[in-house]
Write a structure and sequence with these properties.
It is a single chain. The chain folds into two domains: 1-117, Rna Polymerase Sigma Factor, Chain: A; 119-196, Arc Repressor Mutant, subunit A. The chain is mainly α. The protein has a two-stranded antiparallel ribbon with strand order 1-2. It has helices spanning 27-35, 39-60, 64-81, 92-110, 127-145, 149-159, 165-172, 176-193, and strands at residues 3-6, 12-15.
């Protein structure tokens, strides 16, 4: 069951109420099924998941512009392939992040640079504090990059894209338990490196 409300710019939006236990589908699955014939349903999926996809891609690219371009490419590919989405698995968000991951891999094959991310505009911190923060962020990026590929992907998917172990499993082609183990092992290595 869903409620319809007027959102920004007068666009009718669907509010998430509960999991439909009769069918085992949530709002995202309902929207994905509707998006096969209704562009506004896909728009709702885009609005709900673009931030998570962008955050994930931001960790996989050298700058915000590339991440934004790959986010657009991800949703373009998803729109074309929406008829192939199968509801009831790990969910729409995991499906989107899987598409984003493939786009980032393709992009990485074309560009092999890893510059630090841009500083958010309007930062009023002094140069010393920014330097220390930049150094700490660079060190963390290096340590995450040094992890085995599966652990690195699991850590980024968990803490940047905000995916659950089940969703990570769907993206990486692993079980939920294996995904959780990858996250745990990656965290253990990072904690050891930081002497925590």
């Amino acid at each position: 069951m869903t409620n319809r409300t007027k959102g920004t710019a007068g666009v009718e939006q669907l509010e998430y109420i509960t999991l439909d236990a009769r069918r085992g589908l949530d709002l995202d699955d309902d929207l994905a099924l509707a998006a096969r014939n209704d562009v506004s349903a896909f728009e709702s999926l885009y609005v709900r998941h673009r931030s998570a996809v962008y955050r994930y891609l931001r960790t996989r690219t050298t700058n915000g512009d590339d991440a934004a371009d790959l986010t657009a490419l991800t949703f373009e590919r998803a729109f074309v392939a929406i008829a192939r989405y199968r509801p009831g698995n790990a969910g729409v968000r995991a499906w989107f992040v899987g598409i984003a991951r493939n786009a980032a891999i393709d992009h990485g094959r074309r560009r092999l640079a890893a510059a630090p991310p841009e500083r958010p505009p309007g930062s009023d911190d002094g140069p010393e504090k920014r330097f220390v923060e930049d150094e700490a962020a660079a060190e963390l990026r290096q340590r995450v990059a040094a992890l085995p590929p599966d652990q690195r992907d699991a850590i980024v998917l968990r803490f940047v894209a905000g995916l659950t172990a089940r969703e990570i499993g769907a993206v990486l082609g692993k079980t939920e338990a294996a995904s959780q183990k990858l996250v745990s092992r990656g965290l253990a290595v990072l904690k050891e490196a930081y002497c925590v």
